[in-house]
Every structure is written in structure tokens, then in C-alpha cells.
Amino acid sequence: MKLLYLDTGMGAAGDMLSAALLELFPADEQKKILGEINGCGLEGVHCEAETVSRCGIKGTLMRVLIDGAQEEESSEAAEHHHDHHHAVHMDDIVRRIDSLKLPETVREDAKAVYQRIAAAEAKVHGAEVSEVHFHEVGMMDALADVITVSFLIRRLAPERICAGTVTTGFGSVHCMHGILPVPAPATEKLLEGIPVQAGTIEGELCTPTGAALLGYFVDDFGPMPPMIIQKSGYGCGKKEFPKANCVRALLGEMVSDGQPQGNILCINCNVDDMTPEEIAFATERIAAAGAAEVYTVPAGMKKGRPGIQITAFCAPDRKEAVLSAFFKHTSTIGVRAFFQTGYRMESRVRKLETPDGTVHIKESTGFNQTRRKADYDDAASLAIRENISLREARERIRAQEVRI
Question: For residue 138, what pLDDT is reported?
Fold first, then answer.
């Protein structure tokens, strides 16, 4: 499986992501790609790639020139806030993207990413997406980054994209409306459901555009999966920090043939004042709220009381529903929640026609292993019909599978 891994230990910005991805191509192809981007019809915009060094690491710095000039270095949050003198609305951005000479998939990706940015800004300002307007120059700079990243990812065509925990930085940042905390409010909205950390660098390391691109393109967040690295690229930021201000992109093949299950949220709590019936009901409701797995284990509580730990795993987008189920159906007053990276085998169900009727066989493959198992209901029906044990029924199905 072709895997793209993004190391976001120093955050992410649109220009850093585009520069890191550009480095994954041969030098002659990089020039052609920049020519296609600059010739796509984004009026007044010109992208340039420059070789720079950050803490001794050679990488690429992407510069976006608007009418021949580069925008002043400032918080990207400022680029997306209101400016009534040079305002651009989401409808204007969609029209501009639709007019570009780019593959349709790239245009659709770019519109979807900018829609995320507009939705985040709308939440921050308590407005409708249609009411959000952007600073003209800052919007063009960010739009160039979004288009370039979308173009490069489509050209690379990875089968899966993973990224590490996103470092946001900390402190405060100046924008046209005053001083905002880091991460900026729009960035914070765009990072919901993504594992983040402040890190040790004071400043804005993750911008709204960087967060929107990660949220749209990345399939899984967590440690780098086992992979054979074939190419690497370093996209450098404009500022110098004690740590190398780079996004690193790694392109290669996953070592195993199993499928990453993705970024899984684990939620658990301990209770010592619920009856077994209440606990059973609670686990059923937590599962119904969207948990992929729910289980209980005995736990020793304070003052020597025996208790139960209830644990659930769910996708990040089911977090609120599963949390609500925990607080509604258990007696807990607090839960623990943390992200884990899960891996699972690929599974498929096939029908097996046997003398005893149709049996569904679940087959799972991955990590150099293959497992087959008859459906429980089918095996149980056979056991009841033939007055044999479940074990005997499964062995009988297995023998028939081998013969067939």
C-alpha cells in the first residue's frame, strides 16, 4: 500500500505542506508542476520554490507572490478575519476555483478545504458561512497553498495518508482585531477530533489553512506506521525556531498488508455503585451511541470496594454521542479519554454452500496471517438442528469447507 506520512511535530501551514510534498518529486518534475500551478489561471498569483536551511536541514521554502509582492509575515488567522475594504465571500472563492485550469478532482478538493475554513470562521464569529468574508490578499495566499497541496496529493496518489500529533505552539498572536490565543480560534475549531499538543515552542505553529488541509486529507493521526521509506521531503516555514521549523513528508510502502483502523478514541470510567443490570444496560446504550467496542473488567476502588471499569472505543466523530451515553447511563462523574492507533486485518464474508445448508464464513487477512470462522448464528442453528455441541458444529463446517 502506497503510504504518505506527514510529520507534524512542528505544526503545519499551507506553504510548509506544499513545499514538503513538492520535494517528493524529481527536480525536473518540480519545475513542471510549478509551471502548471502558475499557469492555472489564479490571477496575480505566482508560486516560487527556494532552497533554504533550518537547523542544518536542507529543505524547500514556498513563496507566494501576490501581484509581484509577498505578504508580510503575520498570523494566518489574520488572513481569514474580516476586512470590509477588500472582502471576498465563499461564493467568490468557489467561482475562482471553478474557473481554474485544473483537474476537476483538484478543484473539488480545494473547494472542500476552503469550505472547512469558512465553516470554522462562521462558528467563531457566530455567523452563517455565506456571511463570512476574507481579506483579499491573505485569501489569495492561502488559496494558492490549498490548490498546490491538493494538486500535489492528487499527483502523488497515495492510497493512505497518515500524520503525527499536531503541535500547535502556545502563547498569543497579533492579528488585525487584536491579540488572540494560540491556537487561534479558527484553528482550534479545525483541529477538533485531531490529536494535538502545545509543544515547547512559543508561537503559532499550526495555521488555519494547515489545520484545514490536515483535517481534509489525512486518514489517520498517530505514530508513523511500519513502512519502507522511498522518498522524503522537508517543507520549511518562514520563521527560525530553536527546533527545525519543517513539515517532513515521507512516501513509501506499508510493511504489513493489514489495514490501519485509524485514530481511535478510548473512553473509560470506574464505577462501584451500579447493579449488574444497570451496567449491562449502560454498555448496550454506549454501543448504540456509536462505540465500536465496549467491555467491562473488574476494578479495585477506594476503601477496598470492588468496582467495574467500563471501556469503549469509538471514532473521533462519535465522541460527543459516546460521552453523553457514559454520563447518562452510568453513575460516573468523570471519564478518561485518549487517542490510540489501531490496526486491523481486512475482512470479508463469503457464502459457503454445504450439505447442511448455507453457511457464512468470515475471512480475515493481514500481517501475514489468515483466519476463517463460521458465523455464530449459522453454527448455532446447525448445532440445534443436529443436536450436537457448538464445537462439533464448527468442526463439521470446517471439514465441509476443506472438502469443498
Answer: 67
